[in-house]
């Protein structure tokens, strides 16, 4: 009887060990899948030619299970929101209307008060400033961590998220996006000054073909100085 109990106990222990071993191996496989997925996603974002279709495909899927799926969902949600903001910034910066503000055609169609152009400048500048602030926020560790803090995960998974995927964001922050926004805002500011100058001196200039002609040299010099200040 005693021997039988010992045998049964050994079987139970063996089963438990087997289950635990399977669980550990399964967990390690999930972690490896997650690390590989996010590493490949990082590589895609660093390509010279970015394939947004493939990036979106990766962001829209969850390939892990259990708590690892929560970690994956948190980081991909963070990336998705970050990318969406950057895409909006790119769309705003690439608006062709920016390049038409100081043209003879715009002077003829929206002059001499330039109400539409001034409203456009004000609206676009505000949107760019808001997106710039949002971009700066997304580039902080605090923002990245906020995507996992409400998931109720064990500290192991939170630490994994922080150490493996978030890291030290302050040390890798790139100001290129913010600098690009500032450059466009500066162009808008100068354009606004030009249009204000023209509307305040509406009787002192005319359009001749593709050229603006001023009735006095002082106004012409002010106009040219502003135009030349656009880098």
Strand content: under 5%
Please report the total strand number as a whole number: 2
Order of H and E elements: HHHHHHHHHEEH
Low-confidence stretches: 1-26
Outline type: elongated
Mean pLDDT metric: 86
The quaternary state of the protein chains shown equals single chain
What's the Cα radius of gyration?
29 Å
Biggest sheet layout: 2 strands, antiparallel
Helix/strand/pairing category: mainly alpha
**Strands across the major sheet, in which order?**
1-2
- Helical percentage: over 70%
| Total helical elements | 10
Give the terminus-to-terminus CA distance: 93 Å
Describe the protein's topology.
Layout lengths: L1 H44 L6 H8 L6 H28 L10 H7 L4 H24 L2 H5 L9 H12 L2 H4 L3 H25 L4 E4 L2 E4 L2 H12 L3
Antiparallel strand pairs: 1-2
Helix pairs in contact: 1-2, 3-5, 3-7, 5-9, 9-10
Please describe what this structure looks like.
By secondary structure, the protein is mainly alpha-helical. The chain is built from ten helices and two strands. It has a two-stranded antiparallel ribbon. The longest helix is centred in the N-terminal third of the chain and has 44 residues. It is elongated and about 75 Å long.
In short:
With 231 residues, the protein is mainly α. It has 10 helices and 2 strands.
Question: Which characteristics define this entry?
Answer:
elongated; two-stranded antiparallel sheet; disordered N terminus; 2 strands; mainly alpha; 231 residues
């Amino acid at each position: 009887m005693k021997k039988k109990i010992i045998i049964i106990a050994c079987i139970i222990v063996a089963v438990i060990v087997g289950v635990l071993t399977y669980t550990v191996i399964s967990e390690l496989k999930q972690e490896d899948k997650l690390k590989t997925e996010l590493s490949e996603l990082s590589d895609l974002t660093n390509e010279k030619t970015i394939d947004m279709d493939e990036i979106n495909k990766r962001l829209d899927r969850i390939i892990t299970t259990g708590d690892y799926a929560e970690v994956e969902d948190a980081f991909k949600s963070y990336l998705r929101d970050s990318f969406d903001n950057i895409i909006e910034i790119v769309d705003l910066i690439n608006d062709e209307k920016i390049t038409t503000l100081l043209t003879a055609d715009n002077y003829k169609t929206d002059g001499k008060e330039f109400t539409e152009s001034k409203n456009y400048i004000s609206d676009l500048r505000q949107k760019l400033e808001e997106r710039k602030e949002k971009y700066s926020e997304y580039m902080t560790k605090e923002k990245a961590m906020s995507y996992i803090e409400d998931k109720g995960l064990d500290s192991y998974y939170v630490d994994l998220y922080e150490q493996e995927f978030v890291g030290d964001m302050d040390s890798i922050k790139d100001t290129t996006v913010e600098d690009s926004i500032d450059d466009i805002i500066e162009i808008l500011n100068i354009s606004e000054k030009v249009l204000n100058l023209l509307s305040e001196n509406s009787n002192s200039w005319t359009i001749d073909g593709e050229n603006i002609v001023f009735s006095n040299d002082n106004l012409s010099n002010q106009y040219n100085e502003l135009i030349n200040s656009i880098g």
